Amino acid sequence: MNEASWVDIVGLIISALTMLSIIFAVTQIVAQTRQMHRDFEALYVERYWTLMDRRSGEFERGGKPRKEDRLVIHQYLQLCEDEIDLRGEGRVTNDTWDFWERSIRAQATEPHYLTALRSSAAHEYPSLKALLRSKEAYDPLHWKASRRWWKGL
Which of 30, 54, 78, 99 has a CA that sits 20 to 30 A from residue 47's CA? Predict the structure, then answer.
């Protein structure tokens, strides 16, 4: 082999290694972003369980809510509103949103929660009301798949 072909081969190897390094770096950035989303989502899961733990035993077992349970109901509705708004801002991953959306529908349509929601002022919980009006899967995030991937969703 002559000297020019060796230079071409070394240049090709260096280019391939550079490309692999760039792909690895981008993958790491996306993975780190996804982990930050997961950490953030965990705060909302913790907030949910804190609320559920504050319910009276009677209400938890399906009985009539007490006065303190009514506060928990309204705080839960606000939590749902916050979660929906966060998804609309791209702060909640696709997998988590799929689960949260189904869970919100299930719990927010239970009689005591639904009664509280229906008796709320028109300007309260607009995102939650929109989600419950929707007969199909509801996603307030309107980003293309490529942007969702890049943002770690």
Answer: 30
Mean of the per-residue pLDDT values for the chain? 89
| pLDDT digit string, tens, across residues 98-115 | 999 999 999 999 999 999
The Cβ of residue 83 has, within 10 Å, a number of other Cβ atoms equal to: 27
Per-residue pLDDT, averaged over 71-82, amounts to: 96
Task: Count helices and strands (H / E) in the chain.
Answer: 7, 0
Q: How far is CA 45 from the centre of its chain?
A: 10
Nearest CA to 153 among 45, 34, 36? Answer: 34
Query: Could you give the dihedral angle defined by the CA atoms of residues 108, 54, 64 and 110, in that order, rounded to the nearest 10 degrees?
Result: 10
